[in-house]
Amino acid sequence: QVQLVESGGGLVQAGGSLRLSCIGSRRLFNFLPMGWYRQAPGKQRELVADITTADTTNYSDSVKGRFTMSRDPTKNGVYLQMDSLKPEDTAVYYCNTHPPGADFWGRGTQVTVSS
């Protein structure tokens, strides 16, 4: 079974940092464009960062300059370093391919930023 498992979320004060991890069950994901997505309560899921097969990264305007996405093929992993967190970053964060594959959605990891 092909899976993506997210971890690293938690409760943090505004201005703090968290590092999210996403580990794939197959090396397949090392060769695909990947994205980090988030879904806040009552809102649609949105893409916040993506990384291409050439390891070029792109960010939504809301996180640009604060979040950094990276990948480590030796661990089948992609990561999201989140700094200067804001209450509006509160959401469940997911990784997936970019564009997302319907069969790859995991449980996500909850990030809560208190003011």
For the biggest sheet, the summary is: 6 strands, mixed
Unreliable sequence segments: none
Strands ordered across the widest β-sheet = 2-10-9-4-5-6
Query: How many DSSP-defined strands?
Result: 10
Molecular shape:
globular
How far apart the termini lie comes to 40 Å
The rounded Rg comes to 13 Å
- SSE order: EEEEEEEEEE
Helix count equals: 0
Average of per-residue pLDDT values:
96
Structural class: mainly beta
Task: Summarize the structure in words.
The chain has 115 residues and is mainly beta. Helix content is 0%, strand content 48%. It has strands at residues 4-7, 10-13, 18-24, 34-39, 46-51, 57-59, 67-72, 77-82, 91-97, 109-114. A hairpin with a 6-residue loop joins strand 4 and strand 5. It is globular, with a radius of gyration of 13 Å.
Describe the protein's topology.
Elements: E1 4-7, E2 10-13, E3 18-24, E4 34-39, E5 46-51, E6 57-59, E7 67-72, E8 77-82, E9 91-97, E10 109-114
Kindly list the characteristics that best describe this protein.
four-stranded antiparallel sheet, six-stranded mixed sheet, 115 residues, 0% helix, single chain
Structure, briefly:
The chain contains no helices and ten strands.
